[in-house]
């Protein structure tokens, strides 16, 4: 597996955050992932007036993974539009776990760690 360019991945997440539709929270969220074939996919949050319907950045990125060729996430970074590190919410950790697996690397305040540590004892069918 190629070396991950984490600075480029973080920058891609910030760039994606600028595309967010977030009139309610005003929090722009972007996510970026390197896939197992080396391509980059990104996502941004898309809110809704029925708040619970809101799509997190990781959700739209999951759609991009599938729409642009499938495969698996191998490295993920999430950032606000201001460049702050944001952690995926609980639901999105489950989403990343399913599409990246336990070895998928995530940029966290504790450093770069695998999904198995971001979501211990994950639900798996
Ligand atoms: N949000 C994400 O995009 N990803 C997460 O993992 C957590 C939360 C978004 C949803 C909403 O638009 C905003 O952040 C505030 O909750």
Automatic annotation (TrEMBL):
Pfam families: dCMP_cyt_deam_1. The keyword Hydrolase applies. Residues 4-125 form the CMP/dCMP-type deaminase domain. GO terms for molecular function: cytidine deaminase activity; zinc ion binding. Gene3D superfamilies: Cytidine Deaminase, domain 2. It comes from the Bacteria. SUPFAM superfamilies: Cytidine deaminase-like. One of its GO terms (biological process) is pyrimidine-containing compound metabolic process. Its EC number is 3.5.4.5. Keywords: Hydrolase. NCBIfam families: PRK05578.1. Belongs to the cytidine and deoxycytidylate deaminase family. This is Cytidine deaminase.
């Amino acid at each position: 597996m190629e070396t991950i360019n984490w600075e480029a991945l973080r920058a891609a997440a910030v760039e994606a955050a600028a595309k967010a539709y977030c009139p309610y929270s005003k929090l722009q969220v972007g996510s970026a992932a390197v896939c197992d074939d080396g391509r980059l996919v990104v996502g941004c949050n898309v809110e809704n007036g029925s708040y619970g319907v809101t799509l997190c950045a990781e959700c739209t990125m999951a759609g991009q993974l599938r729409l642009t060729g499938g495969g698996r996430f191998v490295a993920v970074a999430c950032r606000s539009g201001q460049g702050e590190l944001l952690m995926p919410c609980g639901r999105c950790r489950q989403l990343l776990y399913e599409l990246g697996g336990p070895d998928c690397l995530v940029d966290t305040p504790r450093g770069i760690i695998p999904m198995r540590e971001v979501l211990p004892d994950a639900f798996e069918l």
